[in-house]
Amino acid sequence: MPEIAAVIAFAWATVLLVAGGLLILRSDDPLERVLVLDVLVAIVIVVLTTLSYLRDVSYYIDAALGLALLSFVATLVACRHVIRGRPF
Fold it and tell me: What pTM value is reported for the model?
């Protein structure tokens, strides 16, 4: 039964990734693009953790943690660049 829920979560996350890709193409505001990219990274993290559960390997979790750390720093730098005009 948990495998069925994981497959449904994986499929739903894939649909959300496609919808987020369409939303980022339509957005005009740079801050909205930063927000959409941050949400897309969170969805990719969900996909990686679901794959880790389905395939019973741990290196997808390592990739998800690395992506989360990189995404946090990149979002801070991108927001600071949009607001101040310079990243640092």
Answer: 0.81
